[in-house]
């Protein structure tokens, strides 16, 4: 078993944990871009990348990786949203964040299925 597909996933997961559990007072007071619900776009992107990076490691363990990868990342999304509220007094769980997480991993599954045999994708994921 090679460690290569795991290091990208591990680094991304650590970055996600930092972003999700950062105290609210350290978040920018003015949004980076003046886009309504920009935080939902961030949640979508974080879980899109998490799911994309999870396909290759999960694929090594099961032929049903199109089922298990989205399921595992959805479980991670639910657990992280729940923990976010429990351990950080300044942060809260939001059902809309969870929907954005689920949309990101759903789109990642669709994207991966479309481009799974493309050589350029294999270099990144």
Describe the protein in words.
Helix content is 72%, strand content 0%. It has five helices and no strands. Helix 2 crosses helix 3 (65-87).
How does the SSE layout of this entry go?
Blueprint: H1 4-21, H2 38-59, H3 65-87, H4 95-115, H5 119-124
Helix pairs in contact: 1-2, 2-3, 2-4, 3-4
The helix/strand class is mainly alpha
Please count the helical segments: 5
- Multimeric state: single chain
Please compute the radius of gyration using only Cα atoms: 15 Å
Which regions have little confidence, pLDDT < 50, spanning 5+ residues? none
Major pleated sheet: none
Q: End-to-end span in angstroms? A: 16 Å
Number of strands: 0
Short description:
The chain has 125 residues and is mainly alpha-helical.
Summarize this structure as a short list of keywords or feature phrases:
5 helices; 125 residues; mainly alpha; 72% helix
């Amino acid at each position: 078993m090679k460690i290569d597909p795991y290091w990208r996933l591990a680094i991304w997961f650590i970055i996600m944990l930092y972003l999700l559990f950062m105290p609210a007072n350290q978040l920018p007071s003015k949004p980076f871009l003046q886009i309504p619900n920009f935080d939902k776009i961030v949640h979508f992107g974080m879980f899109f990348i998490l799911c994309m990076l999870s396909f290759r490691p999960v694929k090594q363990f099961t032929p049903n990786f199109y089922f298990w990868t989205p399921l595992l990342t959805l479980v991670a999304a639910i657990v992280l949203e729940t923990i976010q509220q429990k351990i950080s007094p300044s942060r809260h769980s939001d059902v809309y964040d969870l929907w954005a997480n689920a949309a990101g991993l759903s789109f990642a599954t669709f994207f991966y299925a479309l481009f799974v045999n493309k050589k350029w994708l294999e270099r990144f994921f």
